[in-house]
């Protein structure tokens, strides 16, 4: 009797070893190895494809002679979703939609069902987590009706493949990749081997049959897509659905896109009848703002993909009751905050050594671009000195270690957004060469140093 070969696979990153290891040498996670039966054969679909010559019939050719295939896109019917995808779903591509449980992944894809089935396009929605009647109940609530949208409650991948051959859909939705399993792999659904195998076959299906595949993936506690990082490498587009589960708005963020730009953000509101797109998110994030003057509250203009987003940054500075003062940041990188505080102490003479500093970006949004530096600095400085930045002012700029204000990208777009929302004053870096006179309804003040920005904001 031949011995069954097994291997140990890290469930975090997919690292394989013949022996058990306590700690993964690849991703350093502990106790993440699970024993799996080694799959000796490559996936049958891949083998078939090779035999048919689909995959190895290409030859090297000169770059000047390559004819570009026209990428055919079609709309999801949700403008914000289309924008994040770079203009719609691309035929024959594979998209991964990842997010926390309950964030609304199934909802958004079901909502698109109505539109992607237009022009007699057929879609197969594989629901591995819910029964067909549960999906129907939700579809009814969302007002989704279609003659060409098939709902299939199934977890077995071989059965799903048969239905793909039978129905021949143009769009395939898998909800979710962690819940389906292939008979060729012995490990349980959701394990690295299962995810890898199923995604491999899905990729073949997408490329060879020209089916657009959208795969839902869950996110682990740490915020990674459950399963190996290879999943992200394999697919064409990775989209994260994020947001505060306790608030109604959701963000759709593109992390990888072979057919367009990344870092586009789409904003949605979760209502009783599904997700509603918000085409002017700045208003949403600013609408809870009290119009009265509050020390430590500053409006910044960040740049999310092709669109500027106005956000409020709040700061609280107070005498500490701890041996070492506390620095707490939400939405701003912690080390970035420490650097800004160091510049404030050294260049402005603000003594924060006995002060706790809290900084928060309203709306649970993470701002990771340096253009927010000046806004953070002014929020802290005004709160420490108990003065206010007038509420109709927007502040942008990167701060260097010597206290200089550095240029940022897309400044004009940010100014226009502030102008559109009725702000009257904008503090911007002087090193950005722009024509300040071209903005009629907003006063643009160019500053070269942090001190100038403080003077311009509070007048002392
Ligand atoms: P769902 O799409 O099932 O999340 P996921 O697939 O990402 O796990 O969304 C579930 C949540 O959304 C659930 O808590 C209820 C809420 N919801 C609404 O508020 N309104 C709606 O119209 C729908 C369909 C869901
Ligand atoms: Mg779901």
Structural account:
With 460 residues, the protein is of the alpha/beta class. It folds into three domains: 2-52, no CATH class; 71-279, 3-Layer(aba) Sandwich (Rossmann fold); 284-458, Ribosomal Protein S5, domain 2 (2-Layer Sandwich). It has helices at residues 44-51, 79-85, 105-116, 132-142, 157-167, 192-209, 230-234, 281-286, 334-348, 373-385, 411-420, 450-458, and strands at residues 6-10, 16-17, 33-37, 73-74, 89-90, 94-99, 123-127, 149-152, 171-175, 212-218, 237-243, 249-257, 265-271, 274-277, 297-304, 307-319, 327-330, 355-361, 393-395, 398-399, 405-406, 425-429, 443-447. Helix 9 links the parallel strand 17 and strand 18. The longest helix has 18 residues, at 192-209. The protein starts with 5 loop residues before the first strand and ends with a helix. Residues 49-54 have low confidence and may be disordered. Thymidine-5'-diphosphate (TYD) is lined by residues 99, 101-107, 138, 141-142, 270, 272-274.
